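Me: I hope this is not a bother. Any chance you could explain this protein sequence and its structure tokens? It all follows right here:
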Amino acid sequence: MKRVTGRTEFAWIGDALGNRSQEDAAERPALTVGRFLPPVFEAYCKLLHPIYVDPDVSSGDITWDDAEGRQSDSEIERLLGASLASLGVTKSVLVIGHHEVPEGSPRVRWGELAKRWHVPVGPGLSFAALRRGFGRESWPRQFLGPRQGSLDRPTCESLVRLLRPWTARSERVYFWYSWANTAHSAGRFDVGWLDDLPRYFSNDDVSGSPEYWWPEGPSWCVFTDCDFAFTLVGGSHGLVDALLGDAEVECVPVASNDLLI
């Protein structure tokens, strides 16, 4: 891999999203697929970051707040005598992100949890939707993840495997990190090959997978926001069908104008 100077190769994304935002910001809700991926692909899907079951926790009734002795939002509001929203404060009640997942921890599918908690499976399936279905302010302690802001390495390797047939061997791939995902808050822009991607997980200069990555074509594009527990992929119908049908990644189909949360 080598560094890319300037932003010329990123312009097809920045220009498309900037122009679209200016044209229909009044009509288009903020968190749609089209806010993050250019509307140039045949199909899109939402890849849900894995959730695992902690083998050391047997009860599904204990939440992360319970286990760590944290106060719930309602208890904090009672003590303050005001709502958190009125104070301009929000409290994260989920533990998502960079948890150590014990080796051999079983994975639980988003679809299984959605069915258990009567949450619709579709473009709006998200961590927030599952939490609303669970009905508590905090996430069950027995669950680890989903990782926020990055694919985990096994999922990233699965995605590379699925993208390989749709990427020419001679085609270089660009990797874009925003300021939020680099050690020095300066961002990073590299070019290399598709199989270079897992090397970022052992690079101390960045945090996890890139925000955007795409081939020279570009025949596909992958996007992960630093605040999301899912990744968006745009590409051909064949690529998206392959993602939807794969046993190792869990995806739902989405369209450019679909709300994500």
Observations:
- The helical segments are 11-24, 33-36, 64-68, 73-80, 110-116, 127-134, 153-163, 237-245.
